[in-house]
Design goal:
93 residues, Arc Repressor Mutant, subunit A, mainly alpha, 4 helices, 6% strand
């Protein structure tokens, strides 16, 4: 049987923020593909992160990509700085 690693909620959030940052704005398709998330789960996280002010959406033609807000960029930096500490304790994000 293949062992499956599960990500924590924080790990999923970190991955989503990284994908959006890498693309400098990403749609749901890019996020679900690159973060390896089902559409419904991705939408749940994205809606919550948008409500909390970490993400924003801007219309670009027919597309409405998610972009990091200033608050989202700061949160991403904080998570990246904290990641090695969690890993050293045996809790990879």
């Amino acid at each position: 049987m293949v062992r499956q690693d599960y990500r924590s909620h924080v790990g999923v959030i970190l991955t989503i923020l990284e994908v959006i940052d890498d693309y400098q704005g990403a749609g749901v398709t890019e996020i679900t593909r690159d973060a390896n998330l089902p559409y419904s789960r991705a939408k749940t996280y994205l809606q919550r992160m948008e409500e909390e002010g970490y993400l924003d959406r801007h219309t670009q033609g027919r597309k409405k990509p998610y972009e990091l807000t200033k608050k989202g960029k700061e949160f991403l930096k904080t998570l990246k700085r904290a990641e090695p500490f969690f890993e050293s304790l045996g809790f990879p994000l």
